[in-house]
């Protein structure tokens, strides 16, 4: 009376259901990884073709040449006027504007009257696909969690407390 195959009791035997399941899962994972790689290659090829077409249109003079910069990484996705953004940055750096006030009041990002068509498309496309670098929530998180800004707020509060007290003002 043979009790069957003793190898089926071994943990390493390929005939056990547990080992077959492990092999099946590994094959599925490898297949999914291959599909992801193919998708990334496809996207990269599409991007390369778009850049080539853009370069051809720039060479033909149908489109203005754009400077290759890193500004896309820091763009807010709102499109619009770059000079207005520069003015806002300058005012903030000079201390004329406060970032937390801007966030609390919330700018109206739905106003597209002053934007050209490409800026509106870029804004809508970037927000539709969730690829904006600085969303409102992201900016709010940065302001809320910024330790230097918290220190500056405490300094301003203590300065206001001193200036609002007439006795301390006389001491100065």
Low-confidence stretches: none
Largest sheet: none
Q: Provide a count of the helices.
A: 8
SSE string, helices as H and strands as E: HHHHHHHH
Q: Count all strands and give the number.
A: 0
- Cα-atom Rg, whole angstroms? 30 Å
Described by the principal axes of the CA atoms, the overall outline is: flat
Termini gap: 106 Å
Q: Could you estimate the helical fraction of the residues in percent?
A: 55-70%
Classification by helices and strands: mainly alpha
Structure description:
The chain has 172 residues and is mainly alpha-helical. The chain has 2 domains: 14-64; 76-171, no CATH class. Helices cover 66% and strands 0% of the residues. The chain contains 8 helices and no strands. The protein has helices spanning 17-60, 71-74, 82-93, 99-105, 117-128, 136-145, 147-164, 166-171. It is flat, with a radius of gyration of 30 Å. 2% of the residues are buried. The model has no long low-confidence stretch (mean pLDDT 77).
